[in-house]
Amino acid sequence: MQPELKNLCIHTITTKPWAIEESAEYFARAGVGGITVWRQALEGRNITRTGEQLRNHGLSVVSLCRGGFFPSTSLRQRQLNIDDNLLALDEAAALGAPLIVLVCGADPGQSLEVSRDQIKAGIEAVLPRAEELGIKLAIEPLHPMYADTRSAVNTLSQANDMAEAINSPHVGVAVDVYHLWWDPTLKQEIERCGQHGNLFAFHICDWKFPLDDILNDRGLMGEGAIDVPQIRQWVEAAGFSGFNEVEIFSNRYWAMDQHEFLSKIIKAYRENS
Amino acid sequence: MQPELKNLCIHTITTKPWAIEESAEYFARAGVGGITVWRQALEGRNITRTGEQLRNHGLSVVSLCRGGFFPSTSLRQRQLNIDDNLLALDEAAALGAPLIVLVCGADPGQSLEVSRDQIKAGIEAVLPRAEELGIKLAIEPLHPMYADTRSAVNTLSQANDMAEAINSPHVGVAVDVYHLWWDPTLKQEIERCGQHGNLFAFHICDWKFPLDDILNDRGLMGEGAIDVPQIRQWVEAAGFSGFNEVEIFSNRYWAMDQHEFLSKIIKAYRENS
User: Cystine design at A27: which of A32, A100, A184, B227 (Cβ 3.0–4.6 Å)?
Assistant: First the structure.
């Protein structure tokens, strides 16, 4: 079934050349239903007012990106990381975002196992404040090519394990097709995630080949190797009815006229998601 | 325990600027025990004679790289791929290489599952000839970032599954730390691989960060995020007593004087493997 435009959410970083006020205006005008806000888009702004502006455009504020980056070989740095996540929670509350996406972090100076233990401890340290504010936290497993410094959680299985171990209605998982499409256990882990009520967010884009840049060469849906409609079907079969969030980092698309890019996003969403 | 120089093997592609005759002479002079030959290094040469030259230097010919690339949406292309693997078997026989490493391939025009079925069928198609020649085939799982076009086998678990399903003493697995270091099931899958007698090869290098190039920015052992000694210990505990093969693709190192690079390889092997 073709996805509906009102279920489309776009991340502010996807149209990075635009200020958040421009993104909000143009997303809303195009009929896009939601916006996920990256923290750097809020710089120098009154966050509460910005949240009101987004809602006044008729946009749902889907999530705040991003918390996480908990691990470090330094105990002091780990405390600073926790403090920054507490700050992100305050920002999400001011903005009116019901969810923070966690890019969990990794420190190559220690094993991935130790980093994962520190991630779990970090989430548990900020969880009381998240519960108090009524804000959910989504563990986002990142592609194994980011296991060096960005995340020690690299499969949906690991993210599910962690969310189930923490066992709070405020802690779940974000499924991003870019990070997970290759995983032979993806379908079963999506089912498992849904069964535990842990499927909090769904991010889409495509995997281009050849990949020109390990960070900033994501493709539009239909442009690469990922069967996005198949994964969306699994996610919906698992009970997910939230937004389809387009999160694209792309030097190529950022260099393009962003109105043209927005049209391409909507076309790709309608035809290849 | 510090690894021994006689157990060190270097791939011809690691010192790509050298012709195979130069690599053989300089590896042997440095006390390196083995050489793995990439097919392009044999171009324009009498393969039987080249094999003799390598052995005359006292080098063990460890393996031929590489076979594989079986999948395609085109039936005709799949037959051509099988023919090329039969040719590789003849080349390995002429060279005196007891093993061919398989980079299995993937076609983004079809699902990874279908590509894996075609890989299995391709291996089974060439297996009678491999058995006849007494040459083993090692399925090498590749990092998930290569799932688009290079390999639909992206974890050791999948490679073990496939080797066990084919169930021939001539089909096993190559463990490369670069592809597998991030995998939370790595230790148990190495044990499993050893228990089934399927651990045919062990490749080492390191994962640099940030990664400048998705293909050609591998690091020397100790330079990146991988705990090579830990993985070597797992491999040896699983019963592996073969060569530690240094396989580094690196624009940076290829630009360096190769004698200096060879010294660095040996130092990194002694100190960080």
Answer: A32
